[in-house]
User: Fold this.
Amino acid sequence: MFADPPDGDVLADAETELMTELVGVQKTLSPVLKAKALDNRLPDPILGDEYAERTMRRLDPGYDKGRFGTSQLGLAAVVRAKAHDDWARSFLAGHPEAVVLHLGCGLDARVYRIDPPATVDWYDLDYPAVITLRQQMLPPREHCTLISSSVTDLTWLEQIPRGRPLLMIAEGLVPYLTETELRRLLTSVVETFPTGGIQFDTVSVWAWRTSKWDPTLRRYGTRFRCGFDDPAALADWHPRLEYVDEAPMNDSPLLTAKAPANVRRVYRLLNLLPGLKRSTAIVRFRF
Ligand SMILES: C[S@@+](CC[C@H](N)C(=O)[O-])C[C@H]1O[C@@H](n2cnc3c(N)ncnc32)[C@H](O)[C@@H]1O
Assistant:
């Protein structure tokens, strides 16, 4: 299941001393960060995130030693990040006065990659331990506010300015929420703001059900808590919510074009199995 990089190499040593304060699901930020850092070392990167490489190097100076082979299977997570970036850029181009909620931000440097105009107010939210680490790793930025909270404690919504278009981005977060928590989050966002976009990624029911056996998630002491075979149907949760589209992940043309040959071959094989190919979906909605 590929909600996070599926490859043992990437995941095996992606925890470092600086991350010892992180517990359970918070640790899932590390393999994604490592995949982004490794991507930046490719001759023709997919995301090209210098912040990820710099952060990973600070967390673990030797992170890339001998890890440049099959570990790039994590490139699907990089494709996911690129899809979220592209959608966010396009939303902000049409709504330069927007408010952005970047939920479960981990150590992702999206606000620096996208570099929105000063008219955009950006909020990066994650658990307190993650935000503390983030403050050590990434520079402060005007119009970017950090929120230390569980996303499920919706009182954080009270500090977000109202009356402006809203973009909610949740990369790699939704599978760790229960369906009830996700439903409350989506309906609260739609009811709080006049208009906006919502983009996130989900795992399939099969990936959710089998996640309790996933060795990486087990080591982190977490597992997926929801899964959807038809995430477009989540639009039914609120009359103002409308499904827009889905971006490819495991079968992305970017992987065919840019992944090293050995990695490309593995993805080609995995994509022959519909259950694996459709184990994740990157989806966007509007309201
Ligand atoms: C797989 S990581 C993804 C991190 C980041 N979005 C990225 O793509 O690099 C999942 C993130 O969601 C955060 N998370 C999970 N459940 C959360 C919750 N209930 N409230 C806030 N953050 C949560 C974790 O702490 C972690 O940083």
Notes: The two ends are 30 Å apart (CA to CA). The beta strands are 99-103, 121-126, 144-148, 166-170, 196-203, 242-247, 280-286.
